[in-house]
UniProtKB/TrEMBL annotation:
Keywords: Coiled coil, Methyltransferase, Restriction system, S-adenosyl-L-methionine, Transferase. This is site-specific DNA-methyltransferase (adenine-specific). Residues 654-688 form a coiled coil. Pfam families: HsdM_N, N6_Mtase. PANTHER family: SITE-SPECIFIC DNA-METHYLTRANSFERASE (ADENINE-SPECIFIC), SLR6095 PROTEIN.
Length: 833
């Protein structure tokens, strides 16, 4: 089954498990029931339903906005699977029943067809050629989520993140189809963080909503009160994706009455409409969209320029490219004080004809607030570079348009280009501060834009800084490094000018040469008192920063906002580093962002619910996948610490045991070296080793065979060279085998000791281990940021030295010498008849 199709089944069933778990949890809390097994809870819910009927369902519906009846629970499917009573029809009945249980302002139409056969067709032959095969595969899918507690996973948005992750993975597998339902996280973040700066956001709209990730990302960046009151609106043409949107929003704890999602073509007919103001359209505080790029034949409905959505442009976008049609639709629904962010292909910035006229109108009316150029190959479904356009309706007449060229800021992950956290932060900060930076951002005035005839192609406004230093002809001819290149080493000239000057000698006016190797100059620079002093100051401030947040992180509780805490830490590290010249504050931002991504986000969530030291002494099953195909299964392989890594416990608390294991492994390596040497000796003809051991080599001639050695020993005469060599190999084999067994036993014992140790760690041990886990490398990494620009310039100095080391005259002389040598050799040649 194609990935884009399979996702509907997998995500749909995962979502239904969530609905069932939420229903049971709500019943449990409302009934005041204590601890009981899931099976007992289902039984209690079934009895309560029989006793209270609709009153119970209404109660759950009032809390959640929906409910799942006992007979339709996911848990009931599992019970049927276990008892052998499972029927596919019961799953179909359960899914069909759900939409009748959801209440949205008295109108359930908003959730009609959520599990429709167009999305989850459980009779599809792709699931199996006959009912028995389909039943088998559907049961396997259901059991995928049987052991997951979706309510527990929803806390801290773990479930939401997992759902978004799966959508992203399916997007990568689906190729071109991915653009229908997924916006890469980093692009969503750029748009959402900018839009979320708008004050007092109560409503948000995405006219090409896809899976809903853009809406949810904006919501995530609002404070908790704003999130509770936020109304989500969206429209999606693809029915399966439209269903995915509604599931995704519900799964992220958006109440049904706070979402209005429509299945329809955004461009063919305006939506949403205000019946009382038919020509104005419903206005939203924020509009975000990632529409299909350059959609062809978008105007199948024969829309006219008189359509109120397009009146502002005075002309219809070309039928062959729908980019501006989507933009104008979104702008039409943007409130007077709102912000809109749309991602489009670069062509909208410079294409002419009707699109040029629309762009001119938008600029003249002062709606375009910023243009952000992003790298190519960010999306799974297209390699073209894209641009995010920010629009506002309340800009001052003389406000310039901010242009940001972030197209060169990315890392490569597999085949995709990816924006790092620091790249996103720099874009957002540049937008918020509306700052100019050479080669990165520019504020384009109205006059400047008019001079360029409303062409907004980014290279017209921002020239990328050339990294390549131009070659100097004189230096190539006569040698020496141009002094102007030395003057351009701004960091070295600013911090240690005297050290640099002492390392150079002028050989003629405007040209210098090195008095010592660059490696020695590097040592002089990095050991200079001024550089050392700065390093100490950075180290001190970083340690104070860590100490401050170390206490905060250990004491997070259920009332703590981890998102807010992370933002505080990221902002503060930028503030600390901004006081040091030449350090890129965003490199420091990335260091802290990665600590959060790799450890803190996971650990802090666990600490919130159980406390720091309790979490430190908690372990969980280490589940591993074994086998393949039909025999593929998950098994427990020991235990791992919930937050304290087993590896750190072994490293810090069992160092003697680890040294002993490493010592034995070193001895095994020595034995293998000796055996390799004997193998090589046995390949040499007429050697003692060849005579004694040659016939004991395997077919490839790469190792001795143990059986052959033993057989040869039985035939060999004692007190001969042959016997001694065979006995030597036999002993090496025996020693290696004994050591391998010892290492295996030691590693097993160490592993078991570490697993038991988790339960008895002292508070002090947990402190030391967790400090190392979270911040072990941070001080060195932050201090290293000071050296980064210095080392870059020292590398440039080395490059300049290498470039001009061989002058043209020296090369000419070398050629002449070579020619003379060749001529002398030629004259000595004698041609014999």
């Amino acid at each position: 089954m194609d990935a884009s199709r399979y996702k509907d089944y997998m995500l749909g069933l995962m979502f239904y498990k969530f609905l069932s778990d939420k229903t049971l949890e709500t019943f449990k809390v409302a009934s005041g029931i204590g601890q009981m097994s899931e099976f007992e809870l289902v039984e209690a819910y079934t009895k309560a339903k029989a006793e209270y009927g609709e009153m119970l369902e209404q109660m759950i519906q009032n809390v959640l906005g929906y409910y799942v009846s006992p007979e339709y629970l996911y848990q009931t499917w599992i019970k049927d699977i276990n008892s052998g009573d499972f029927e596919v029809q019961k799953v179909i009945d359960s899914l069909n029943h759900f939409e009748r249980t959801i209440a949205v302002s008295g109108d359930s139409d908003d959730f009609q067809g959520l599990f429709s056969s167009s999305t989850l067709d459980l009779t599809d032959t792709a699931l199996g050629s006959n009912l028995n095969e389909r039943s088998k595969n559907i049961k396997a899918l259901i059991l995928l989520f049987a052991d997951l507690n979706m309510v527990a996973l929803q806390k801290g948005d773990v479930l939401g993140d997992a759902y978004e992750y799966l959508i992203g993975q399916f997007a990568m597998e689906s190729g071109k189809k991915a653009g229908e339902f997924y916006t890469p996280r980093q692009v969503s973040e750029v748009m959402a963080q900018i839009v979320a700066r708008t004050s007092d956001i109560k409503s948000i709209y995405d006219p090409t909503v896809g899976s809903g990730s853009l809406l949810l990302t904006v919501g995530k960046h609002l404070d908790e009160d704003a999130q509770k009151n936020l109304s989500y609106y969206g429209q999606e043409k693809n029915t399966a994706t439209y269903n995915l949107t509604r599931m995704n929003l519900l799964l992220h704890d958006v109440r049904p009455d706070k979402m209005t999602i429509k299945n329809g073509d955004t461009l063919s007919q305006d939506w949403p409409e205000d019946p009382e103001r038919p020509n104005e359209g419903v206005q939203f505080d924020a509009v975000v969209m990632n529409p299909p790029y350059s959609a062809k034949n978008w105007n199948r409905s024969g829309l006219k320029v008189s359509d109120p959505r397009f009146e502002v442009a005075g002309v219809l976008p070309p039928d062959s490219k729908g980019d501006f049609a989507f933009l104008l639709h979104g702008l039409f629904h943007l409130g007077q004080n709102g912000t809109m962010a749309i991602v489009l292909p670069h062509g909208v910035l410079f294409r002419g004809s009707a699109e040029g006229e629309i762009r001119k109108r938008l600029l003249q009316k002062n709606y375009i607030d910023a243009i952000i150029g992003l790298p190519s190959n960010l999306f799974t479904n297209t390699g073209i570079p894209v641009v995010v356009i920010i629009l506002k309706k309340n800009r001052k007449f003389d406000d310039p348009v901010l242009i940001i060229d972030a197209s060169h800021s990315f890392i490569k992950v597999g085949k995709q280009n990816v924006l790092q956290e620091k790249d996103i932060a720099k874009i957002v900060d540049t937008y918020v501060e509306r700052r100019e930076e050479e080669g990165y951002s520019h504020l384009a005035t109205r006059e400047e834009i008019m001079e360029n005839e409303y062409n907004m192609n980014i290279p017209r406004y921002i020239q990328v800084n050339e990294e390549e230093i131009p070659h100097d002809v004189d230096a190539h001819l006569l040698g020496g490094i141009p002094q102007r290149n030395i003057d351009d080493l701004k960091v070295l000239q600013s911090t240690v000018p005297d050290v640099l000057k002492r390392s150079l000698k002028e050989i003629r006016e405007g040209y210098v040469e090195l008095l010592k190797p660059v490696e020695e100059i590097s040592n002089d620079v990095l050991s200079d008192a001024r550089i050392v002093e700065i390093s100490k100051e950075i180290e001190s401030k970083t340690k104070n920063y860590i100490d401050k947040y170390w206490d905060v992180l250990r004491n997070v509780d259920k009332s703590s906002s981890l998102t807010q805490l992370m933002d505080e830490m990221l902002v503060e590290i930028k503030q600390i580093l901004s006081s040091f010249q030449y350090i890129d504050v965003y490199d420091g931002y990335q260091i802290v962002a990665e600590i959060w991504k790799n450890t803190l986000a996971h650990d802090a969530e666990i600490i919130k619910s159980s406390g720091f030291y309790t979490a430190g002494r908690t372990r969980e099953p280490n589940m591993v996948t074994k086998g393949s195909g039909n025999k593929k299964r998950e098994e427990q392989d020991g235990w791992v610490g919930s937050i304290v890594p087993n590896e750190l416990i072994a490293k810090n608390l069992y160092s003697d045991e680890r040294k002993e294991i490493e010592s034995k492994k070193a001895r095994i390596q020595e034995i293998e070296t000796k055996l390799s040497e004997l193998v090589e000796a046995a390949k040499e003809e007429d050697s003692d080793e060849a005579n004694a051991l040659g016939e004991c080599l395997n077919e490839a001639g790469e190792a001795f065979e143990s059986k052959s050695i033993k057989a040869a020993l039985k035939k060999a005469s004692k007190e001969t060279v042959e016997y001694d060599l065979l006995k030597k190999v036999e002993k090496l084999f025996a020693d290696k085998s004994a050591l391998n067994k010892a290492v295996k036993a030691d590693e097993k014992a160490l592993k078991e000791s570490v697993q038991e140790c988790i339960l008895t760690l002292t508070n002090e041990e947990i402190d030391n281990l967790m400090y190392e886990k979270w911040f072990g490398n941070m001080v060195d990494a932050i201090v290293g940021l000071e050296w980064k620009p210095i080392k870059k310039e020292l590398d440039t100095l080395q490059m300049l030295h290498n470039r001009y080391a061989d002058t043209l005259s020296a090369i000419d002389e070398e050629i002449r010498d070579s020619e003379s040598t060749l001529e002398a050799m030629m004259s000595e040649l004698v041609v014999e008849e």
